Amino acid sequence: MRKISMVDLKAQYEKIKPGVDAAINEVISSTSFINGPVVKEFQADLEKYLGVKHVIPCGNGTDALQVAMMALGLKPGDEVIAPSFTFIATAEVIALLGLTPVLVEVDPHTFNIDPAAVEKAITPKTRAIVPVHLFGQSADMDALMAIAEKHNLYIIEDACQAIGADYLFADGSTKKVGTIGHVGCTSFFPSKNLGCYGDGGAIFTQDDELAKKLRSVVNHGMTVRYYHDDIGVNSRLDSIQAAVLKVKLPHLDEYAAARRKAAAAYDQAFGNHPKLQVPVRFDRSNHVFHQYTLLLNGVDRAGLIEFLNSREIPAMVYYPVPIHLQKAYLDPRYKPGDFPVTEDLSKKVISLPMHTELEDEQLSLITSSVLEYLNR
């Protein structure tokens, strides 16, 4: 049995090694390391896969969020609503741009941003909402888009953990997450469902004018070389990373299926245990399982992690401290207890190994070890 990893990138690479190696060698031979032809080829492939008019590659997922806010013309003092239960990058870029992060509660079942909390948080200064499609499934985009339209707000989708997931609208139509709001963002960090072998990200939009602005902002504010019409940044997806992603993209649905298969094995083992809540599937979204995250009930989480580690089984906590309680983001507007759902989740969630290469023997050891600890 292979050693169990939270994400087994080596095993995944071994299956696609000839294609990846050839793609990387082609870039090296061409010496077109920045904005080479393969970047545009991957961009076109991803546009087709997502069913979106414009994909703008960039340096990483955090840059994608920042560039989106810059291109939308958000100004210091503008308020941007985001969940407190998410990775710090969501709020980080808001703060970096001098915007005001307005943090809100999440749904206790799906862990995604609560539309009712969003509605309550809107003020005359609110300009945008950032729903995070956490752990691999969509937030309630019907409700959020209705709120945005009602209050004339932008929706910036943080799809860094959910690329490839589908959203089913009330009218029966479907779209890929990240292509629903005014602009969507994703990360190609190596551990993501579609990951490169370094840093990378992308921005999506259906809006032609916004796409033009986004392309300018990621490239120093240039549309014509050495003519700078916008304040921009230097955030480009390099050709080697694009080459890797071009090879991996055709496997993305296959990867999602493998993750769902592993999740089903976990569900079967844990679904009826009184001390565990398995991931709740939102009925409007399929789940691509960037993470498989359990909610513990009356379990010593630290003790469980230590026990699993003794069996050489990794486990992680995403996220142990909500944003509103992080030292860098302490704000007199918020205090402990203001977001009871988020704070409870931070104390009780645990994520088990989840990737495309999980074997039945590995899953059996993981599930039996968790149950052994809970039942002793």
Question: What would the keywords be for this entry?
Answer:
alpha/beta, Aspartate Aminotransferase, domain 2, Aspartate Aminotransferase, domain 1, 2 domains, three-stranded antiparallel sheet, 15% strand
Element layout with pairings:
Layout: H1 9-30, H2 37-50, E1 54-58, H3 61-71, E2 79-83, H4 89-96, E3 100-104, H5 115-121, E4 126-129, H6 141-151, E5 154-158, E6 166-168, E7 174-176, E8 183-187, E9 201-205, H7 208-218, E10 222-224, E11 227-228, H8 239-248, H9 252-270, E12 276-277, E13 292-296, H10 301-310, H11 340-348, E14 349-352, H12 360-375
Parallel strand pairs: 2-3, 2-4, 4-5, 5-8
Antiparallel strand pairs: 1-9, 6-7, 8-9, 10-11, 12-13, 13-14
Helix pairs in contact: 1-8, 2-8, 3-4, 3-7, 9-12
